[in-house]
Amino acid sequence: MARDIVVGSNARCAALICAVKTFISDYKCPKTKEIRSHLNIALKPCFTYLSQCRMMCVSMENFIKHIKLQITKSSPDLTESEAREELLEACEDFFKENIYLAGKSITEKAVNRIVNGDTILIFKKSQLILHILLEAKAQNKEFKVVVVDSRPDLSGVSSCERLTAAGIPCSYVYINSSTYIMKKVTKVMLAADALLANGYVLGPVGTAMMGLIANTYNKPVIVCCETYKFCERVQTDSILYNELADPDSMLKTLNAEESPVAGWRESPNTRLVNLVYDTTPPALVSIVITEIAELPCSSAPVVLRRGAVKM
Amino acid sequence: AVVSTQSTGTSVASGCDLFVRFITLSRGQNAPSSEIDILECKGFDPVRKFLVDRGNLFMKRLKDSRRKIAQLAYPFISDGVTVLTVNMSRVVLEILMKAHEKAKKFKVLVTESEEGPLMVKKLNDQGIQATLILDASIGFVMERVSFVLVGAVGVVENGGLINKLGTYPVAVMARSLNKPFYVAVESFKFYRNYPLSQLDLPNDAKYENAEDTKHPEVDFTPPKYINKLFTDLGVLTPSAVSDELIKLYI
């Protein structure tokens, strides 16, 4: 994950689930200890190592909370292999319910929002949004897509590739021209990395800009987010809690020349800041589509409350 | 079938939805003899009686809701205010009558719309000073208005308002001159739909007959223009409406 091979909150969580399943399958509990107290202790250094490679995202943190709870809740009467089976099943169920089936449910709801003649704006690459658009195309809806991309990773390019391969007419712009293109767009669809307890949407940096410009031109902003990404954190700006990615990736210029700030480490006055996330206020979002319901952004705490009651 | 007959389609649809849920999704805790657990009854007659009783309770609560709303809303009308309202609304009428009963001195401006004259007549009959204004003159009068109070045909999931044509311009005008915009609505009108634009409303909500699709009956006011909703569940903000809907339906 540190080398950007696994990217995206769903993919990273899925990869973590696979890794934890492998760990649990290979795990051998020491004779003197109980699986439910020892497994958590054994997993801890693994999670610490992962978070040192790259900061955990909210989806991964929520999965870790879930699996730790499952481990401590597991009955002491089970044999080791039975407990292991149960935990493996818990991991599988988490993936199936919260990622796979949730994705399908969100896709169904979101595809209903896409009508013939729409021009939909998406930001960079999101596995969920791409799935929605491909599904809409499979249902023979006629629409166009505008992909807004930004440096340094330029992941919008692969979005464009996937969409044009499916036969969806695609435009590709950089984020600088988003005010220009917003006039021609009918809807904006954004993915979220997390939804905070005060309704703020945490997404890849640049999402807030899309929300703001869409609001100025009165275009509806649709955010798609699975409920397992709802978190209890509260923040109103992007500085309070964020991740810094590799600053050297900002040195890549578009025409292979050396960047003018290439010597930034030697200069005492220059710093490169490569933020990963930003927060979008709930007033800028028209609707959040989750697998449970279509909600206004300010209702995110209600889902959290209900989730707590269920548990 | 009921849904297809009346012109205020959404309120009937939402009311019917809630009615069915109310009478079917309970286990008889409110029944007079609490030993009866509805799922364990043999034979249909006790179940039928139970459903009918629940139905009657539902109807009673509906009838009461207007009175409850008037009770909550009349304190917002103080002496010397000018209230602007759109078209005819029985809930708003009830609120204004209650305020008048409590000897508040206020004026009402009613936009003509479809049934404005009827509203003015009813208010004047009660002794409330009401004036009919043209729909086109809302810009002219808005600076003299203290707040806007309208009824509703339906309230949607994000707290937005579906009401007779002409409500949206009044809301935008009120917002631009910083006048509060209040909605008085019974909770059975909370409608399970989430429109993102005017055209997102289903056709049977917009038009009276399916053939005549030129002039819609209703328009949609987004939640950001609404300050408060007076409902029988309490005085709510638009974001609380979705809370209530989630509690009811999910």
Describe this structure in words.
The complex is a heterodimer of chains A (311) and B (250). In chain A, the strands form 2 sheets. Chain A has a 7-stranded mixed beta sheet, with helices on both faces. Chain A has helices at residues 9-26, 35-53, 58-73, 80-113, 127-138, 156-165, 178-182, 207-216, 300-310, and strands at 118-123, 143-149, 170-174, 187-191, 194-195, 201-204, 221-224, 277-280, 287-289, 294-295. Helices cover 43% and strands 14% of the residues of chain A. Chain A is globular. In chain A, helix 1 runs parallel beside helix 3, helix 2 (35-53) runs antiparallel to helix 3 and helix 4 crosses helix 5 (127-138). Chain A has 311 residues and is an alpha/beta fold. Chain A contains 9 helices and 10 strands. In chain A, strand 9 and strand 10 form a beta hairpin. The model of chain A has no long low-confidence stretch (mean pLDDT 86). The longest helix of chain A has 34 residues, at 80-113. Chain B contains 9 helices and 10 strands. Chain B has helices at residues 2-5, 9-24, 45-73, 90-101, 116-125, 138-141, 167-176, 203-206, 238-249, and strands at 82-86, 107-111, 129-133, 147-150, 154-155, 161-164, 181-184, 218-221, 228-231, 234-236. In chain B, strands 3-2-1-4-7-9-10 form a 7-stranded mixed beta sheet, sandwiched between helices. In chain B, strands 5-6-8 form a 3-stranded antiparallel beta sheet. Helix content of chain B is 40%, strand content 16%. By secondary structure, chain B is of the alpha/beta class. Chains A and B meet through strand 10 and helix 9 of A and helix 9 of B.
Report helical residue fraction of chain A: 40-55%
Portion of residues in beta strands of chain A equals 5-15%
The greatest inter-chain interface is formed by: A-B, 17 and 14 residues
The proportion of residues in beta strands of chain B is 15-25%
Q: Please give the oligomerization state of what you see.
A: heterodimer
User: Sheet with the most strands of chain B?
Assistant: 7 strands, mixed
Mean pLDDT of chain A: 86
If helices are DSSP runs of H or I spanning 4 or more residues, what is the number of helices of chain B? 9
Q: Name the structural class of chain A.
A: alpha/beta
Alpha-carbon distance between the two ends of chain A? 31 Å
Count of runs of 4 or more consecutive helical residues of chain A:
9
